[in-house]
Amino acid sequence: MSSFKTIEWKDDKVVMIDQRKLPGEETYIECGTYEEVAEAIRKMVIRGAPAIGVAAAMGIAIGALKTDSGGRDEFFSQVKSISEALKGTRPTAVNLFWAADRMQRVLDNSAKDVEGIKQDLVLEAKRVLEEDIETCKRLGRLGSDLLEDGMTVLTHCNAGALATGGYGTALGVIRAASEVGKDIKVIATETRPFLQGARLTAWELDRDGIPVSLITDSMVGHIMSKGMVDAVVLGADRVASNGDVANKIGTYMISVLAKSHGIPFYVAAPVSTIDYECPDGASIPIEERDRKEVTHIRGHRIAPDVAVFNPAFDITPGDNVSSIITESGIAEKPFTSTLKDLKK
Ligand code: MRU
User: Fold this and answer.
1) What residue's CA is closest to ligand 1, atom 15?
2) Residue of 120, 237, 244, 275 marked catalytic
3) pLDDT tens column, 71-109
4) Which domains are seen in the chain, by residue range?
């Protein structure tokens, strides 16, 4: 396990490590309202698909807990609007919608009074967190078989403890391989524009004693051409039912390079990241973020005031993916049928 808590429920507050401040400062923020949780997701205090799912579940629970409930119907409609507000924060990571649906099922299936349902929602949100940690550990153990002793693995963005309840998907695979004594070295891309690789992955791995070297995104081709990468392992924000993968911007480019160099390209994600309603990558909404993330670094302007594109994610065709590692098994091609077999 990692040595910090990404998110927890404490004294009826949602406490999160402030990922915007890492690696300089390890500070935690407390959210006492659902609006504060929504703002934390939007501003990327917390980010990473599974962690956003946990935050959304806790946001719904905290919102429900604080409602001045009239009757059952009034309570249900208030929770619905809380849930909609949280669902409106970030569009690509499907875990957010998965978690909101899971909380809705608590409402739909409960015969309790309003106070009883509030407590059930809190319990469910805590369960989403606990299960996420177990899921990542299982996924990590399964995926670790794909990594051999002495390998160097390239990862992109942060799919670690910070992006999940506390173990990681891609970094969970790496962590699990290290835990069984394999010597795994990691190359982390800095991941412009938000620098999740430089700020978060490098910090997390270094802190846990896993050897990591940092590169800029533009170095991937060169590093691969020099034979310095044995495998790519990264996470996903949404996997379409045909195996197309939405993940942090730059993933597609890495997948093309990996394919061209014959390097295995593994995607590690819980089954909750698979969107069975989504036929292919073209149907996945791609978040466009503030232009300032591109023109500025940490508040410092690095570019003139010109037009900017800032898509936060891209689509990697399933064809470029070697395997999709989940807690229920490792899916190989053809993904349309193998992913179906993992459905719970
Ligand atoms: O914009 P972010 O930082 O939320 O994007 C995160 C990613 O793209 C991760 O790779 C993905 O969510 C997988 S996290 C286990």
Assistant:
1) 159
2) 237
3) 899 999 999 999 999 999 999 999 999 999 999 999 999
4) 7-137 (1.20.120.420), 140-341 (3.40.50.10470)
